[in-house]
Give the backbone structure.
Amino acid sequence: MKTINWKYLKYLFLLGPVLAITGLVAGLVSSSWGAVPVGLIVAGIVIIGLWLLSLGGSPNGFWGRRSTQAGTNALAATLAVVVILGLINFLGVRRAVRVDLTENQLFTLAPQSQQLVQNLSQPVKVWVFEENPNPQDQQLLENYRRYGSQFSFEFVDPQLRPGLAQRFNLQSLGEVYLESEGRRKLIETVNPQRGESLSETGLTNAIAQITSDRVGKVYFLQGHGERPLQAAQGSISQAVSSLGEKSYTTQTLDLAKTSGIPQDANLIVIAGPKRALFAAEVTALSDYLKRGGSLLVMVDRNTNPGLDSLLKDWGVRLDNRLAIDLSGGQAGLSPAVIMVTRYGQHPITKDFQDGRSFYPFARPIEVTPIAGIQATPLLVTKDESWAESNPQSDRLQFNPESDRQGPLILGVALNRVYPPQSASVPSPTPTATTSASPTPTPTPTTTASPSASPTPTATTSASPTPTATASPSASPTPTATTSASPTPTPTATTASPRASPTPTATTSASPTPTATTASPSASPTPTNSPAKTENADQKAAESRLVVLGNSDFASDGLFDQQLNGDVFLNSVSWLSKQDEQLLSIRPKQVKDRRINLSQDQANILGWIAVLIMPLIGFITAGLVWWLRR
């Protein structure tokens, strides 16, 4: 009988890994873990287990070797490290934690931004129209998306998606729009080549505004030949439509048919009136400004809106001369069409730089400084322009006797803070009460001095001839009360020489007569004044006014030319005081940690790095060699 040669039988155990791998591949490829794949895997595992058991049959076998033990420990340690790394990555994906080690937390959103994005209740998406996405902008938007699932963003190449660019009415590359539930808002325009990137402050405040329930209400004054709001000749329908896209609601206002300015008005727009307002309408607008209102006035030449008194209080005067600029002929413009490229430093025009806006047949504005009013010119013409007093002349030429040399102001923004208005509270009517004994007497007598109040009143009931005498200017608050003895003697009431305009003397019968006397030193001020309480709760109101010497620039056809629409929309935005809703987020700047060295210090560092340090290394190596040789 032949013995089995176990030397070659051990190669049969190689079927274990082969069967296990075959079962795994069959299951993965077929996407079905039936009997065949599972059977192959189980058979392979059983054969591998028998092979491992056979290796430990003798003390000097495979498991008894030191190399096997060391290899097993190394394999176990390697598998443990792999498992730990896998768990760390799994937790990192599910529970991402970022640590910003920069000094100013440059890569971390401000707490206001984090809270705003976390509390979003509606989807908000940022559209960035750029050919090549800016990595800095992309990193900022990624930070926003980490804090809220409702926030998303997308970079769009306008040339590849022209339909989307047309839907957003794209004007230039780099525009960034914010969209949420049908509402759309232009945030800013970025240009990486000029170092312009997305601002966290602007983006956060834009999100807060577009998700806010607060909707601006703009009233357009009508009834004096103002420009119509619907599409027609000379209308401003494009401007009204643009306001709707920016979440404003517009409505007409006729002060001749209403009792006053509506309470929900964020601002009033007077767009090109041809006839003068009534005095009561001007008064209503003045009172509205004193309560902290805002007013946009656009007045054309050769018209008198009747607002001289209102504008004079703000230091503004409308010049009826025609603004002329002959330099516009190079661009094919008439001398009466002013092209403005100079703008004031104001929130309305701060981003215009050297942009262009056009104002046909505009009238200059004169501004006189008034204490408490901050006035900022918005639109300034060129130095060679002038205000022409005789535009009908065949030859336009500057006349120093009647014309005014430029530069001219075509638009100005003003704001002032009014003190709290005190509520008109009527003073309490003093009452003097006289009670006498129950002895009735039918002939009461009341005597007032000739200089007393025009409406003194005396009421007498069952009293033994009481006499009430009111002298001029009695105190409005007599507070001293004295009880008389219960005798039938009639009691008299005497007021001090500071009587109220409506003193009242009342006499009634009572078992205990009472004499009431107000001393001359009584305080004329009531103890609890309602007016003082209301004034303490009121705050100073800021009023804003923008005056433009032209309304043609906002009409249909010119509204979408260059910066004309931006002038109008930015004026409305500033007047509606949306800038007061902005969240205060301090910009994060990288601190300059560079060390400024003098030339001698730089030379010393150079010699140390190039010569001294290598020389020290060579000397140390030589000493070590000498000691060990």
Q: What stands out?
A: The two ends are 71 Å apart (CA to CA). Residues 599-628 form the longest helix (30 residues). The CA atoms of residues 249 and 483 lie 67 Å apart.
